[in-house]
Amino acid sequence: MSMNETEIESSAEHRSIDRPRLIHLIGDLIKELRLGENDGLTDTPRRIADMYLELFSGVDQDPEELLKVQFNEEHDELVILKEIPFYSMCEHHFLPFHGQAHVGYLPDGAIVGLSKLARAVEVFAKRPQVQERLTGQIADSIENALSARGVGVVIEAEHLCMTARGVRKPGARMVTSALRGRLRDDVNSRQEFLRLIGSA
Which is catalytic among the residues 13, 73, 83, 91? Predict the structure, then answer.
């Protein structure tokens, strides 16, 4: 979900970020890169600054707060939300990586609204990241917040730091997994999860 300018300014104030200074610094970067001067670049520093403020808006958010809104339910089988789209920024080059997350858990008397699972993915994604850490953070937050008997997260993503530069291999996708509790320790539960998300 895209943030409007008012929300971006509010986020900058909340995080004590000097937005005008950030815009000025990006303008200096453009000058140092000798990108030329034309009308199209006039407002680019502001646009880039606001883009970064939006893309990194998850830094000060706690996904476990979102996951505290729970419902008592005796459902004891897998709950899975598949194909959650996300966009994140590689912390090594500040280039995007994007793809889909598959999230599942085995409840222990409490379930959470599906939108909260998607929001948890979004909050962790809106930080400087590496995919391996992102996968584990999502799994750990769900396990902790729900006291789930098992949690599984699989992420498939394409990284622009590999497809647009460097080795330049467009279409290559990285797959990472994080399994907790019964989804790690019990072969049948693990296989059921992987089969249902289409990875087995």
Answer: 91
pLDDT tops 80 at residue 12: no
Question: What does the pLDDT read at residue 199?
Answer: 79
Hey, what are 65's tokens? 């707060």
Catalytic site residue 102? Answer: no
Return the residue matching tokens 């008012």. Answer: 6
The yes-or-no answer on residue 143 being catalytic is no
Is residue 161 flagged as an active site residue? yes
d(CA 71, CA 80): 16
Which among 7, 64, 93, 98 is annotated as catalytic?
Answer: 93
CA distances in angstroms from 190 to 36, 156, 161, 195, listed in the order given? 55, 18, 32, 9
pTM of the predicted protein model: 0.90
CB-CB neighbours of 87 under 10 Å: 13
Q: Would residue 98 show up in a list of annotated catalytic residues for this protein?
A: no
